[in-house]
Amino acid sequence: MISRLYAIVDAQLLAKRGVELEAFAKKLRAAGVVLVQYRDKLGSPQDVLRAAAVLREVLAGIDCKLIMNDRSDLAVLAGFDGVHVGQEDLLPEDARRLIGAPRRVGVSTHTDKQVRAADLSCADYVAIGPVFATGTKADAEQVLGLEGVRRARALTTKPLVAIGGITRANARSVIDAGADSVAVISGLFAEGESAEKVARDFLELLR
Hints:
Layout: E1 5-10, H1 11-17, H2 21-31, E2 35-39, H3 45-58, E3 65-69, H4 72-78, E4 82-85, H5 92-99, E5 104-109, H6 112-120, E6 125-128, H7 145-155, E7 160-163, H8 171-176, E8 181-184, H9 195-205
Parallel strand pairs: 1-2, 1-8, 2-3, 3-4, 4-5, 5-6, 6-7, 7-8
Helix pairs in contact: 2-3, 2-9, 4-5, 6-7
């Protein structure tokens, strides 16, 4: 079972918006978020581990699963609950060897072929995307739309996480198309609204 809302905390997006990690994490906690991935594509290992320690402290005691983006070694050092790997990162099997059980391994997919491979792998969940156009990834793959989610759903029995351009306005349609969870990054930010309110809205919409 995977939480319907998969919040991705992106270091570069926080910096761009002038938002402090600790304050943002506290808002996610207050909203009731229980699945969080930390993503930092540019920071040093020391930067990532410092941020990971902040997340662990803020989200301690509420059974919130913490996932590290890309770096299996840092997931272990940070005491996180799993790692999420892309197509250019370690294979799920290699990530599993590094992090061990019961930590989770997730894998990003963008094509039917990749979904099939992920389904046969040791990955605990499969992410499919981008579902809609996204501005948080410079090298984003071709937009798949809801039809891409439906195809992925037919190709795997594993928990399916949809990612890419997901907002409060379209999140429900993604679940209805077959996703078990939606990964949200920039969609957690809305002008004039706190991240806590936005996250609460998502959780309500996805119930």
